[in-house]
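User: Hi! I'm working on a homework problem where we have to compare a predicted structure to a textbook description. Could you give me the structure for the chain below?
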Amino acid sequence: MVELTAPVGSWASLKAAIDNGADSVYLGVGDLNMRSSSALNFSLDDLPRLVRICHENNLKIYITLNTIVYDDELEKINNILDRLQQNGVDAVIASDIAVILKAAERGLPVHISTQANITNIEAIKFFSQWATTVVLARELTLDKIKILSEKIKSENILGPNGKLVRIETFVHGALCMAVSGKCYMSLDLEGKSANRGECHQICRRKYKLFNAETNEEILIDREHIMSPKDLCTLPFIDKLIDSGISVFKIEGRGRQPEYVALTTRIYHEAIQSVYDNTFSQTKVASWMEDLKRVYNRGFWDGYYLGKTIGEWTDREGSSATELKEYIGFVSNYFNKINVAEVNLDAGQLNVNDRIYIIGPNTGVLEFRIDELRDNNGNVIQFSNKNIVSFKVPSRVRKNDKVYLIKNRKND
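Assistant: Happy to help. Predicted structure tokens:
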């Protein structure tokens, strides 16, 4: 069965990935990864706990060291790789030759990042000296991927672990307008390099085109002319499996825990359905509606089915059909009766409301309020005081945040 790897940018996202069927997770530590400027990142001191939690839950943990690296940073790379080796991470994701070589010297398994723009069998042969897995360029079609997969087998291209090199591709999430994400717009316009994990997403903004000679505006069908819709491969995930891909990667280390929970669960279900021979377009339609609930820029097939030009989003930010609104936090949990006490310091709750409870050890719980009680134990239909109690589907913790799930109004 193919491996499903989920993005992790917080402790809550890690728990969400574990709870919803991920086989592995990938994340960044420190400042030499492609999300180094994000608040959703970990430190080297988090490594022991991260590895322990993943391995206790039978997940592999991959660490991203996928930025370009300068000469004065090689000692830092050595220190980071030493820590990764000492803590038993399962692989390093890299594209810089220095990182690849230094990881291999330590016997750390290497996954070649999509930043390396691998598009042919000679490149796979070259990287197989050090790599157990190659993440292909995002611009390849399924037909081209299948040819590469068959050549790996027929030519017996082995990684340093003595096994056939695995192919990994992205199956869901953001796509960049640049080839395999190697963009210089942010560096050129704002001095922040995307290839150093500092992208300011210049391409996501609105633009207008003008004729430089006449100053006349050129008509285009949308203003977001460089912001692709998000990749979604659910409708043809059976074809991805058939092409010989070994690892399916969900993009989104910078996105919220509920995104990780929902996308991981749905892709896990979809993969399982292919192997169970229950995959159908009826299921796909239901999954697609579910996926629309969390952050997305609209969906398209990417380049897998032969498109050569991207499909562009028609709005800034998310097209999610639902929003979450912070309303309070868990102030107590009664284990014997499975009830949470919640302090509503920023909103109100009603019976039948849908909510998230999100926390670093809780992950993401999503459910509907069936019954509310006030702090005197009386059954109520809506909260008119700060403290309410209700049953929860599983354990929550003090200070977990509570969010009301609301339908997004058309805008």
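For your comparison, note the following. The chain has a mean pLDDT of 89. The chain has ten helices and 20 strands. Good luck with the assignment!
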